[in-house]
Amino acid sequence: MTSIALQTGTTYVGEKRSWLQGPHGTGPNENPNATLDVSKFVEATHYPDGHVWSGTVLGRVTATGLYGPYDEAAVDGRNVAAGHLFSSLVLKGKTKVAGALVVHGFVDAAKLPANHGLDANGRADLKHIVYTN
Length: 133
Description:
It is a single chain. This protein is mainly beta. 8% of the residues lie in helices and 26% in strands. The chain is globular.
């Protein structure tokens, strides 16, 4: 006899990509993989509801190749913006999470999620993204 395990406490989130101005840069093979190092995120700031929102700016940790939130003051490589997180991801209770980056296209900065991390230096790093605000 096969048993079925019941999973409880699962939260589903509707994707909010209104920050993207169109599909340019989001097609097959256009979004590089990005594995997130959850230890680099601060729960109260980056994922208070258990997940990090699409549109969040990420930087690559030089020593590991993993990604964390872009932080201009970081000294581990995250001080260079690598792209925007393409899809919202559940981080709570995890150590690493696979995702993808938006590295070119058109972005409405006014519609990025709270605590997205984009600043003037991040915009300069992301040379292949055109910001409309």
